Amino acid sequence: MKKIILLFASIALLFSACGKDEEQGLTDVKEINISGVSNDTVKLTVADTYQLNIATTPANAVNSLKFVSSNARIFTVSDKGLITAKGGGTGTLIVVGPNGEEYKKARVTIDVTQYVESVTRNDTYKC
User: Fold this and answer.
1) What is the distance between the terminal CA atoms of the chain, rounded to a whole angstrom?
2) Whole-model pTM?
3) What is the 3-state secondary structure (H, E, C) of the chain?
4) Number of other CB atoms surrounding residue 32 within 10 Å
5) The CATH number, out of the four listed (2.40.50.100, 3.40.50.1980, 2.60.40.1080, 1.10.10.10), of the domain defined by the range 27-113
6) For residue 9, is pLDDT > 90?
7) Where are the domains of the chain?
8) How far apart (Å, rounded) are the C-alpha atoms in residues 12 and 9?
């Protein structure tokens, strides 16, 4: 009897979880392709923006993607894949999409150059 109750509870949970994904418009992502990136790296300077060009299989799964910055001091990323360079350094952008019980991921290195704006000299220490 307990096995039957557990079976029905599992089926109900499965259907309720599937319904939520469909209500939110989430589609399982089979593949994530990022184009226009050389050697899996985007090179920017501070204050630059860059729009990732992403294709998914199936094509409508692009709406299910989430974008994660490994270091928001170096760059931020919008929910549509627009990168904004904030400070010098290197970070990783992770693109994540649902794939059943697992997640499909793609990674891109974001390399931000920050140029020196001015240099001052302290003349109190002369040799």
Assistant:
1) 91
2) 0.73
3) CHHHHHHHHHHHHHHHHHHHHHHCCCCCCCEEEEECCECCEEEEECCCEEECEEEEECHHHHHHCEEEECCCCCEEECCCCEEEECCCEEEEEEEEEEECCEEEEEEEEEEEECCCCCCCCCCCCCC
4) 20
5) 2.60.40.1080
6) no
7) 27-113
8) 5
Question: Is residue 104 a contact partner of residue 30, using CB atoms and an 8 Å limit?
Answer: yes
Confidence of residue 30 (pLDDT cuts 50, 70, 90): very high
User: Which of 4-13, 41-50, 106-115 comes out lowest in average pLDDT?
Assistant: 4-13
pLDDT at 10 over 50: no
In the block, which residue shows the tokens 């709406």? 63
